[in-house]
Amino acid sequence: MVRNLSELYQYRALLWALSLRELKARYRASVLGFMWTFLNPTLNMLVYVLVFGVLMRNGVPNFPYFLFCGLLPWIYFSSSVLGGTTSISDRRDLLTKVRFPAQVLPATVVLTNLINFLLSMPLLLGLGLFFGVLPTWHVVFALPVLLVQTFFTLAITYFFAALNVAFRDLQHIVSNLVQMLFFLTPVLWDVATIPAMGTMTAEETRRLVLTVNPMASVMVSWRDIFVHHTVPDFFSLGVVMGIALVVMLIATSVFERRREEFAELV
Length: 266
Fold this sequence. Notes:
With 266 residues, the protein is an all-alpha fold. It contains 12 helices and no strands.
């Protein structure tokens, strides 16, 4: 794992250049260009607000702002995983070049979506001002939460990208898993509404959900900062980081064993 991460740092100039190229190519020949960075999450939010805020009338205060706080980090995660899964298998043109570092490709997808996420943050702050939810000093915790989410996202992306080279059906499985995980993660709903299950109390049930689903802890952390103005639960974030470390160890071991085969398999 250390070797792969150190190589990423070594090839940081290449990583940055590929990310910028990806950003430019994404909106090439588009009339609105980079405006789609703001429009995509905004349009998604409007659809979900119409369905869950108007038609189904949930009781969450300032629901559009509440929703946006979960939707932005989720788009960052899901776009990275979905795009990163095929990042190696789709780039034969680069992998066949001499000594091209394959681990740069999934990292490029994650970095590109991270830039999109950061560019979208002013929308979140503007929406908060519109609803009268002003940011507090708790925003200082946004950086550690972002670091945890980024490392977790990179670990998952590496894992799927390495496996997808030999097992192409995985990309379709991942697409369905991400869609299912979206509804199991508190993006559209509040984790506080989880009821008691069986012999467990409501609090124990919530704790189980946060432990089993790492992205649930990440979503709750973002809302703790921007909606509830409280300190995020660093124990839950520590669990997420621990899971990310295990996944990263597994993913990088696959890279080490099969990196020489990638060019032939793609």
